[in-house]
Amino acid sequence: MKNWILLICLYFFTSPLLGQVDKIMNPNIQTVLIFPKGKPLALPVIGLNTQDELLIQFDDLSANYQQYYYTIELMDMHMQPVALNPFDYTRGLTQNNIRDYTISSIAQQSYYHYSFTFPTASCRPTKSGNYLMKVYRQGRPNELVFTKRFFVVEQEAPIIASIQEPFDETMSKSHQKIQLQLDVKKIQLLQPELLHVAVLQNTRYNDMLMSNAPSFIRGNQLEYNADRDFVFPAGKESRWLDLQNLRFKTERIAAIQQLGYGSRIILKPDQSRAMLPYFTFRDLNGQFMISNTELIRSEDQNDYAQVFFTYLPINGQPFQEKSLYIAGALTGNALDTNALMQWNSASKQYEKWLNLKQGYYSYNYILRDNQSPNPLHDFMWTEGDHWETENSYTIFVYYRAPGSRYDQIIGYSSLNSIQNW
Known about the structure:
By secondary structure, the protein is mainly beta. It has 3 domains: 23-153, Sandwich (Immunoglobulin-like); 157-233 and 396-420; 239-377, no CATH class. The protein has helices at residues 2-14, 298-301, 417-420; strands at 23-24, 29-36, 45-47, 54-60, 68-75, 90-92, 96-97, 101-103, 112-118, 123-125, 129-137, 144-153, 159-164, 175-183, 195-201, 209-211, 216-218, 221-224, 231-233, 239-242, 253-259, 262-267, 270-271, 288-290, 304-312, 322-327, 342-344, 349-357, 359-369, 392-399, 408-416. The strands form 7 sheets. Strands 1, 3, 5, 7, 11 and 12 form a 6-stranded mixed beta sheet that branches. Strands 21, 22, 23, 25, 27 and 28 form a 6-stranded mixed beta sheet that branches. Strands 13, 14, 17, 18 and 19 form a 5-stranded antiparallel beta sheet that branches.
């Protein structure tokens, strides 16, 4: 019991509030993507002073040309703005016009598809750290249409990491623990208390864990392997939804309604998988890919559909004092109103409509107590937790040098639980 209390406290006192950073302010803006060029499922991470590029894409369903601009803002490790002038961390222009766009063709839903790469010769970050990509209309920064985070990293602190079973036997078969070691010999005049390690499971930003308390310091080596460090619920492989062809009923689709202005997709009801045996299959870990099975260009030929999700509780009654969320990139990786399922007392089910572009989607359900939410229990009732589940983890090492006003990312690594075995 004491270990559980320690772990719960760790979540709420060391986990930064990262869940509400990626926002879409205009309902006409859909399918906002940011990823390393050529790697659509990867986190938006680039190296400082390298040739790495990010590709940013989005659709405007108003179907009218708009002059969009972007700027970048350096944030601290908790995704709060830093007290620096933009010219302190940007080489080039602070406002940049988005010139590349195409007009949708074939699709019933008309839209303009915008895309651009970053960095460019006219705009490049000069410091590592957390950043916010801010896109706005008509060159007016106060008319934001969306914001998306990305990361600029340096490799000054090499990381050796592995995935272990938690020491607590009550979680050893249901959770996964990240154990890691840092080599900080390149960091001059290091003050360990100014160094923070953050670990992200898949793309669940809202539950990123952070610690500045190494369990051991041996010369230039910092070890993080205490029983309370970086423990995550393992969950199950993600649920999936194939929308690559809006005329074909794939396994998860109950009905397709072709309307004059678009399509409605009614999905088969979801239920708890907590009591089902575990089996492995390849999934996208909560991500999605924009693709189709018939057309040439997914970016501006794919259509949109209104998709109806339902979840049936075991006893036909709503969860008391708990909120049910549909979680994943399809709801912005945030547990907010866009992800919250609504209870329908007449049909005795939880419901949610989402406007989705053709593609292949993965997602999970998260159930949280309204009074005392515990991320360690996220999948306990809806999905079940199994140590064998394949999950991806990303590690960031933040350091704020004495007298500095921002947090560098001096170390970065990723690992996968399957590869670890």
